[in-house]
Amino acid sequence: MYSLTLINLLVLIFFKGKVTMNNNTKLVSIFALLFPLIVVPNPSDYYALPRYIFLLIFSAIAFFLLFRYRYYLSHDSIYNLLFIWISVIIISSIFSTNPLTATIGRTYRHTGTSTYVALSILLVYCSQLIPKQHVSILVKQMILSAVIVAILSILQHFGFNLVPDDSYRVARSYGTLGNPNWLATYLVFIIPASIYFYISEKNRNYYFASVLMFSGLIVSGTRGCLISFVVLFTIISFMYNKQKKMLAYLVTGFMISTLVLLPTNNNIIQKRIGSIPQEITAAARLQDNAGSKRVYIWKETAKIITEYPILGVGLDNLNINMPNNVVMDKAHNIFLEILSTSGIFSFLLYASILLIIIARSRTYPVLFLMIFSYLLQGLFNNDVIMILPLFWIVLGLSLTNMQNDEGMWSTQHPRRAI
Which of 62, 137, 233, 263 has the most Cβ atoms closer than 10 angstroms to its Cβ? Predict the structure, then answer.
């Protein structure tokens, strides 16, 4: 009851006036609002497994609804590419080093073929059944969840952890995502939406939301995402250079937040941020230790790509032997990950899908900025089950944005509500 009251209060704060949604939008709204907050204590995994199960259940419901209204749906050529891409990664999984892992994903990861099938269903569902006028509503729901996660991460930074802990955590904040890097990926993905609505709607609530999310990004201490944010905010500043006063307010808020947080918690954030120039220099020299050994990981991943160029090793089947005898199972670069685990044809198809959607999303700046931000930070981080569904929802909404106000329905048939 109290959680619902809190959500209702946040909705009133962020949505001025009455919010009306059809059942399709309500269903996705519930998913977008709750998915980032799911943490279920269990003997196996608090963070990835519960979300994986939730995603499979939701995608099954979405598939049923799409099948129910199959005669009322319209077609988009991008679905052909999506179907071919899914077929390629299924073939890759069959011939992978471990087909079972490639299908359901590795423990604590769950980014196998089944996840991408579910994500594809989610994309089609959003592109077909969400009206254009509801896009901003769903994005704002994502902002609500991100604000909650940011607050929880800031509290963690100061020693107050309200999130169930599976005892396998690092010193930095992780919010409800289970890892500082994943927290940062999530926040840097959502924060451009909050900045966009602050500038476009001149709503101060989104200003405070932006500063809170930036603070959560700071306490994560994830350098790759901090660099990505600087690049992103520079682009936003050029896009909205006429809004100098609002941009100045944002910069002031971000600077105050940074100055307040830097000396806290044994200067852990100051040490992380202070090491960025050194890490950039090391990466430019291709030193193995650069970026927490990311350069070494990328080099080893490149070797795997040359050994398995056609179908890759299979999703979630990557194994990189590190110098300290630890096995790394992710490439820490979403593009290298696709190349190494599913092959060159899969990569080209996936890149084509993304490029088409990016081109279409440019008519709705908030979606374009979110997609760009996710892909930019993906140069340093991994695709993870905690954030992937939200990214694919945004991809689907970008396709909805190109259709009429009733979504992608054939002109021969009236729209039906569920």
Answer: 62
